[in-house]
Amino acid sequence: MLRAIAIGLPLTVLVTILALMIGTVVALPIVAGLRSKNRILWLMSRALVDLLRGVPPVVWLFILYYGVSIGAIRLTALQAGVLGLGVVAAAYLAEIFRGAISSIPKGQWEASSALGFHRATVWSRVIGPQTARAVVPAYTTFAIGLLKDSSIASSIGVAEIVFMSSQYARQSGEGIMVFFVAAGVYILLSVPLGLLSRHLDVKMRKAVAR
Amino acid sequence: MNNLVDVAIQFGPTLFDGLKVSLTLTLLSLAFGLPVGLVFAFGVTAANKTFRYVSVFFVEVGRGAPALVLLQLMYYGLPNADITLSSLASACLALTWTTAAYSAELIRGGIQSVPPGEVEGSHALGMSYRDCLRFVVIPQGLRIALPSLMGFAVLLFQATSLAYSVAVPELMSQAYSIGSSTFQYLPVFIIAGLLYAAISIPATWLSVYAERMLSRHL
Amino acid sequence: MEQLMIEPNIRTGTTVVQVKNLAKAYGSNVVLRDVSLSVQEGSVTAMIGPSGAGKSTVLRCMNLLEQPDSGEIEIDGHRIVAGRKPNAKNLAALRRSAGMVFQHFNLFPHMTVLRNVSLPQERVLGCSRDEANEKSMELLKRMGLAEKADQYPSRCSGGQQQRIAIARALALGPRVMLFDEPTSALDPEVGVEVLEVMKELASTGMTMVVVTHEMAFAGSVADELVVMADGGIIEKGEPGQILQDPQHDRTRRFLRAVLER
């Protein structure tokens, strides 16, 4: 039984990490859109985020896996899974980033202006670092959520933990145990993320201690 | 595009039936899960060890395990224990667990956010601990937690889409069976997606509105 | 404003509040050292002193919002000894006898003004809803706040909220009213409304203990002035005397700072 779960483990971790990376990168232009003064750009970003978050991830995965075919090219289960989860993650992360940026006191922007900083400097030296600090708790909480959502990829056949556990349960009839163990594995996997979050939080707080 | 409209017309009713099941599952899980969540909200910090350990176990597993795992656990696992429930009932049991676990944390957060001055005010008036909870702490705590609970309800509704994997005839499984018999996967999933969005998006706006209204009042 | 009439429990010459050897420390920080005090029926005691002196702590120990480490408290015959777990009935009776008014009012924001004043009567005194509402309206009318009865506290000004808080405490028929810096969170103009109510209350014979920074009130209304600093009482006596001619150097410094702002 443990073998089945152990086989699924690498893909669970892989899907989570890849989706998180895609999500983080794609979130950046979306945040820019959400903060834009341009009405059309803002509206498009808002609509995109609401749509991505308003549809269950499993539907997006199904659309990408079963629905998308450009010519003879179709996405593999893994590709569809990572892409789908990544794009949905981008929508959630865009909101998280937006929240973190707006939590920075207005005075920081004003001081930067008064000092005559270029926009690039303001972002890279003043706002960026502070946002990174503010975002750590929400980001790690989201990452833990994404770890659990990676299980959705099982529905399109990605051989991660839940897929392997279901297969095992069907064949052996030991339903209860295998899923409790699987639950335990997910919980254990989230512990290092939680610890990392607290460690980063403390480290970053010390850096700004007044 | 034509495809989309054709599929919509032909299979609309079936999909709507699926949506009804999804909504039923959501509402039932909320109805059972929220009261249990309220109990666990107090249970995790209770003095009684047994109550505390049981509460912490249910909350940690309910929050730490993916909903899909809990769904499969109930579906494959219950027959092991010689309990046979319909697929809807076992899915409901699983999602009730999820609801209870998440709402316990949200409610606990709400209760802890009640200004301590009000609790002192009721103590100074000589109100009993139970009265203080009943009239001051719980009403305010729930009020504070309401927007996050509404946000959770939307996520729960989306989570019902996973119940297709345990043979519940909700929206997703209807969409899948239509897709696999007609091979019109894309149109039918797009419509299913739109149906989910049609409910999730306004509900999310409502919870944002609720948050704004509540922070003004308090 | 009409005179406030509270059932007079006049047994002149009795001690309503007796505090003996109260001590409290938070870790290594000593907040109260050996504080003893007695308050006579019908008198107004004002407690003044620098921040951190322990004045609020003494007040909050009186109705056990804070637990003293050692000492005794007796209000209206109900005694609590520090260190021993207080008997629940005794504690409830003590809290019924002492009404408290807080710096930040602590009204219940999710209830109307009327319910704020009535609910404690229903739950603590066991009155029926009608009885409670009648008493509440009577008190609110005397405060000039009758038309606010069905509104929520957030729609009332700070001064109004504090007067409602006073009504809420009075509705339970206490023997002594404890005021913890009742006007410190209010604008000076608005604070005057509250001080007027407190003066009126004093003139009807209510026993009051007031922690305050309002020297004029302490000087004109109080019968006894207690000066605290660094966790202890440094001077106690007639307000006029102390304010004119303080005995202790610390008192002198404090009064100079306060009166010459």
Description:
The complex is a heterotrimer of chains A (210), B (218) and C (261). Chain A is mainly alpha-helical. Helices cover 81% and strands 2% of the residues of chain A. Chain A has a two-stranded antiparallel sheet. By secondary structure, chain B is mostly helical. Chain C has one domain (15-259): P-loop containing nucleotide triphosphate hydrolases (Rossmann fold, 3-Layer(aba) Sandwich), CATH 3.40.50. The longest helix of chain C has 16 residues, at 188-203. Chains A and B meet through helix 2, helix 3, helix 7 and helix 8 of A and helix 2, helix 3, helix 7 and helix 8 of B.
List the helices and strands and how they pair.
The complex is a heterotrimer of chains A (210), B (218) and C (261).
Chain A: H1 2-34, H2 39-54, H3 57-67, E1 69-70, E2 73-74, H4 77-102, H5 106-114, H6 119-149, H7 161-172, H8 175-207
Antiparallel strand pairs in A: 1-2
Chain B: H1 2-43, H2 49-64, H3 67-80, H4 87-112, H5 116-124, H6 129-159, H7 171-182, H8 185-217
Chain C: E1 15-26, E2 29-40, E3 44-48, H1 55-62, E4 70-75, E5 78-81, H2 88-97, E6 98-101, H3 113-125, H4 129-142, H5 158-170, E7 176-180, H6 188-203, E8 207-211, H7 215-221, E9 224-229, E10 232-237, H8 239-244, H9 249-259
Parallel strand pairs in C: 3-8, 3-9, 6-7, 7-8
Antiparallel strand pairs in C: 1-2, 1-4, 4-5, 9-10
What's the short version?
The complex is a heterotrimer of chains A (210), B (218) and C (261). Helices cover 84% and strands 0% of the residues of chain B. Chain B has 218 residues and is mostly helical.
Average predicted local confidence, pLDDT of chain B:
90
Helix/strand/pairing category of chain B: mainly alpha
* Largest interface in this structure: A-B, 37 and 40 residues
Relative helix content of chain C: 25-40%
What characteristic shape of chain B results from the CA principal axes? Answer: flat
Count the DSSP helices of chain C.
9
What is the N-to-C succession of helices and strands of chain C?
EEEHEEHEHHHEHEHEEHH
At the first level of CATH, what is the class of chain B?
Answer: Mainly Alpha
The CATH homologous superfamily of chain C: P-loop containing nucleotide triphosphate hydrolases
Radius of gyration of chain C using CA atoms only: 18 Å
How far is it from the N-terminal to the C-terminal residue of chain B, by CA?
A: 49 Å
What is the CATH class of chain C? Alpha Beta
> In total, how many beta strands of chain B?
0
CATH superfamily of chain B: MetI-like
**Major sheet strand order of chain C:** 6-7-8-3-9-10
- Structural class of chain C, please? alpha/beta
> How are helices and strands ordered from N to C of chain B?
HHHHHHHH
> In angstroms, what is the radius of gyration of chain B?
21 Å
Strand composition percent of chain C: 15-25%
Largest sheet of chain C: 6 strands, mixed
Strand content of chain B: under 5%
